[in-house]
Write a structure and sequence with these properties.
single chain; alpha/beta; Ubiquitin-like (UB roll); Rossmann fold; 17 strands
């Protein structure tokens, strides 16, 4: 049903139920917000989005006020501007004056709004007790002194991720956003996904920076420092330099990394291809044991294991599924293990003298590389993880003109990869890459989908399903002839929980399930440039598919460097050496830490 209204004397029609905020967007009017969260119920707590509505006694918050027929709205009247300035002054009155040294300097929504509204002084002074920083986890740093109580992080943690670590504690001026009943994130169940840091408008929640440690390693003449870059980085790093979302900058990124001083520039995509070989064989082995050997000890469905936030979530909330999760390490960790064994031997370097740095869209990767079991090379497999945002800062610190750099090429052999590895960045990408290889292994033919894309598992729908019937199986796989593989994809841990519950209750039956922690997959990771809306996610996703489609090699098993790795070093997929270096175990952590009571 359409209703008519008027915004700033501009008439328009909108659907019934449209908020004033969304109606204004339709005609190019931006209303400032700090608590608003796209696609979810909003608390209307910051009140910066207030507008003047003819006939209303007070200013109304546009994010929760629905347009009514005949409504006349002013978004920029003197009364509105004055109210917003007072609200900003009140926020700033209790906010630390540390802009120049803050991690969010020139990337802070509060700072930007203060500038836009011409604030040059704050008339109020609200004294608040200074609280200690929470640096207790590898991935996330909390500074409660900078928190403006917008509750965006609470929305992300509770409604999107279904973890509920963060929430309001105490009342009045003493209110803080923190884990329930404990002071440190390390004492609570926090999966380290970083979605709180991704949506925080100020510097209250940020990633734990490893920039200084990486600079120190690069300047150490006794260290051989190599870098791997996750597939999602190439479609997002440009945003740190004001390029449009979805701009592919792989070549410029390679050049910048060399200019920073890395000895070799490699690609996590190499290890993504390796993951598909190991994970695909694991899935086929489980199916054979289940269907042919009738082995009831084999666990299906099999879940992917690439996303460390999901692994943390499973260990704390669904440890009964730990045997269902693929034993494959994530591509990041596979890369580190191979780099410090196979590659170190090839170049005659001691693994103790090698430093592996990862560029990741993810704060949970910082946690993952520090897990005790991630040292199968004999030393810590991955030494440091930088987020996309951190790499952007390092490039700026080095004075590099990123936008105008020439394209570089990844080094061999750990920089050689396929299009299947590129799409690991997107929700549904790991599933699609695995099916490209598994289907061809079983039938000797390409996937029966246009351009190899399994379109039912693409897009931003929270849970996606697909079915694929095996036709023309090769003799060694004839037990799969006519079998319909049922797969599911979920992104965002709230959606993952929906899928898991449907499986545990017997409502759904799948063979293979992909879980990505962050909305949109890695392209929407907690370490990506802010603020990631669905529009930005879609732009990055399309860029990744473009990268895949432009590749000469688009299936992981066609990667010549992977073939060489098995011939020279690993032997066979799921073999003894692969098992030792590339696979891992999981733990039951259900009662190990405090869980929020919500």
């Amino acid at each position: 049903m359409k209703i008519k209204c008027e915004i700033n004397n501009i008439p328009l029609e909108v659907e019934k139920g449209t908020t004033v905020l969304d109606a204004a967007k339709k005609i190019g009017i931006k209303i400032p917000t700090l608590c608003y969260f796209e696609g979810l119920q909003n608390p209307g707590s910051c009140r910066l989005c207030v507008v003047e509505v003819e006939g209303a006694a007070t200013l109304l918050p546009s994010c929760i006020t629905e347009v009514s027929d005949g409504m006349k709205i002013k978004t920029n009247s003197k009364r509105v501007r004055g109210a917003r300035k007072i609200l900003l002054e009140l926020l700033l009155s209790s906010h630390p004056w540390e802009c120049n040294t803050c991690d969010r300097n020139q990337d802070c929504e509060l700072q930007t709004l203060a500038d836009e509204y011409g604030l040059r002084e704050v008339r109020f002074n609200t004294e608040k007790e200074k609280l200690p920083l929470d640096t207790s986890t590898p991935g996330i740093v909390r500074d409660p002194n900078k928190c403006i109580l917008c509750r965006r992080c609470v929305t992300a943690c509770q409604e999107i991720q279904n973890v509920s670590t963060l929430g309001p504690r105490y009342r009045g001026i003493k209110t803080i956003i923190a884990p329930a009943e404990v002071d440190l994130l390390s004492d609570a169940v926090c999966v380290q996904c970083g979605q709180c840091a991704a949506v925080c408008p100020v510097g209250a929640i940020t990633e734990h920076s490893d920039i200084d440690a990486v600079w120190e390693a690069l300047e150490d003449p006794n260290k051989y420092v190599i870098v791997q870059t996750a597939p999602a980085i190439r479609a997002a790093l440009g945003e740190c330099f004001d390029l449009p979302p979805g701009t592919l900058v792989k070549g410029r990124m390679v050049t910048a990394l060399r200019m920073l001083g890395f000895d070799q520039v490699f690609d996590t995509n190499f290890a993504a291809d390796l993951t598909i070989i190991e994970e695909g064989n694991e899935l086929l082995t489980r199916l054979k044991k289940k269907l042919v050997d009738k082995d009831d000890s084999v666990k299906l469905p099999m879940f992917t294991s690439c996303s460390p936030g999901w692994i943390n979530y499973m260990e704390h909330f669904y440890p009964e599924l730990k045997d269902n999760v693929s034993t494959c390490k994530s591509p990041q960790q596979m890369f580190g293990a191979v780099a410090k064994t196979y590659f170190a031997d090839k170049i005659g370097r001691k693994k103790e003298d090698m430093v592996v740095v990862s560029i990741m869209p993810c704060t949970a990767k910082k946690f993952e590389c520090n897990r005790d079991e991630m040292s199968d090379s004999g030393v810590q497999d991955v030494d440091y993880v930088l987020t996309t945002r951190e790499l952007g800062k390092m490039i700026k610190q080095a004075g590099i003109d990123f936008v105008n750099l020439p394209d570089g090429v990844m080094d061999a052999p750990l920089g050689i990869s396929t299009g299947a590895a590129d799409i690991f960045a997107n929700t549904g990408g790991v599933m699609e890459a695995a099916l490209r290889t598994a289907y061809e292994v079983v039938t000797g033919k390409d996937l029966p989908f246009e351009k190899l894309h399994v379109t039912p598992v693409q897009g931003l729908e929270g849970v996606k399903e697909a079915e694929l019937t095996i036709k023309g199986a090769l003799p060694e796989w004839n037990f799969l002839e006519g079998v319909t593989l049922k797969v599911a994809v979920a992104h965002g841990l709230g959606n993952a929980s929906r899928v898991i519950e449907s499986v545990l209750k017997g409502e759904k039956e799948y063979h293979f399930i992909e879980i990505m922690t962050c909305p949109g997959g890695c392209i929407g990771g907690g370490g990506q440039p802010r603020l990631t809306s669905d529009e930005v996610r879609l732009a990055r996703i399309q860029a990744i598919y473009k990268e895949d489609e432009g590749r000469e090699l688009r299936k992981s098993h066609d990667n010549p460097a992977i073939k060489q790795l098995y011939e020279e070093f690993l032997g066979t997929p799921l073999g003894e050496k692969s098992h030792h270096l590339l696979h891992t175990t999981y733990f039951d952590k259900k009662n190990s830490k405090n869980k929020a009571k919500v």
